[in-house]
Amino acid sequence: MTSSLPRALRASFIAATFSVALTASALAGQTQEPGYVDFGPMKPAAKGEFVEVNIPTGLLRFASRLAKSQDPAAAELIANLRRVRVNVVTLDDENRAETVARMETVRRKLESEGWMQVVSVREKDGGDNVNIHVKQQSDDSIDGLVVTVLQGKGEAVFVNIVGNINADRIGELAQRFDIEPLRKLKLPPAKS
Asked: What is the reported pTM?
């Protein structure tokens, strides 16, 4: 597994974070999509990285319109998204137990609510611990995707991407947001 996930996500979303802060109050009244998962508030480490990005529908539509002239494929991908939430939390003695417990609670909740676990990675010797769940209501698209990662003992990553995600575009989504586990994701074949 690579440790580029948190750094790449931080770099990709830093500008959007400022925009979200400016527009959050205007967009607060949105209804929840079927692929949305509430991770709850995260407790940052006393020292270390803490990234929280929450990009709502309105801002994604705006980004899609901006990208349309330069990268139509990216614009189409972004236009079908309804929300992107990313949390990267450095773990220390103060927040490790609470953050790990939250991740396990999120994973159990996804299973109990009918989300399909499509990837599970447990590396040896305290390495990465990765789960990817999808909420799929039709054979050719995904309504939501959740990636949860414990990178050794150093960081926890929570990602929720909500929207109409075409199964054929998962690889592109992985590339755009540099989500390594998604690059190898193979969805179950469509039901006939």
From this structure: 0.75
